[in-house]
From TrEMBL:
The keyword Amino-acid biosynthesis does not apply. The keyword Transport does not apply. This is Transcriptional regulator, TetR family. Keywords: DNA-binding, Transcription, Transcription regulation. Signal peptide: none annotated. Coiled coil: none annotated. The lineage of its organism: Bacteria, Pseudomonadati, Bacteroidota, Flavobacteriia, Flavobacteriales. Residues 35-54 bind DNA. Residues 12-72 form the HTH tetR-type domain. It comes from the Bacteria.
């Protein structure tokens, strides 16, 4: 391995260490307490080294949120591929989204700005809208199959996304006084009612 390749690998390793440390700190202390100094201390480098790899904390948060959206996208695709008809796909996609949110709470909070500023404003990537796109595709196919007006698919799928995201947000922000089973039941009933309404 040449000198250039060795330096490039070292740079990539430090960058990965910064992201890992930031995510680990967020899990133990919360996103709000994250700072460039704490990240530098965690990886045992000086703060300027962190700034060599990321312009600021927002750039680190954006990179982590992008990884979160990528992981979510993979889970949604897996769920979609398990079914052939759009009704079952829709249910599976929503269920996978719900499971991802609570299995990866720190990611979800960062990805959607729950209790903090949303990361990556104005820097949207394809993965950011994969859930909404899949909801739209299933909704469109169900409406088409039922012989209804397909031009309503965008509005209807957006309404479903809002309901799902709203239930997750309520549960994450007020999980002490709302039973998880009640929210999941509400979610399942909402999806079933949505499909019947198309």
């Amino acid at each position: 391995m040449g000198l250039h390749e060795r330096r490039q690998r070292e740079k990539e390793n430090i960058r990965a260490s910064i992201l890992d440390a930031a995510f680990s700190l967020a899990k133990t202390e919360g996103w709000a307490s994250l700072s460039m100094r704490k990240i530098a201390d965690a990886i045992e480098y000086s703060a300027p080294v962190v700034y060599d790899h990321f312009e600021n904390k927002e750039a680190i948060l954006y990179e982590i949120s992008l990884n979160g959206f990528h992981c979510l996208h993979i889970e949604l695709l897996k769920a979609q591929r398990e079914h052939d008809n759009p009704e079952d796909q829709l249910k599976a996609i929503v269920d996978a989204y719900w499971k991802f949110a609570f299995k990866n709470k720190e990611y979800y909070q960062l990805m959607f700005g729950l209790g903090m500023q949303c990361s990556g404003k104005g820097m949207m990537k394809e993965e950011f809208s994969s859930f909404q796109d899949m909801l739209y595709d299933c909704t469109y196919e169900i409406i088409k199959k039922n012989g209804s007006k397909t031009e309503n698919a965008c509005h209807m799928s957006h309404a479903l996304f809002s309901a799902v995201h709203g239930l997750i947000s309520i549960m994450m922000m007020r999980n002490d006084d709302i039973p998880s089973t009640m929210n999941k039941t509400t979610l399942d009933e909402t999806v079933s009612a949505f499909i019947k309404s198309l």
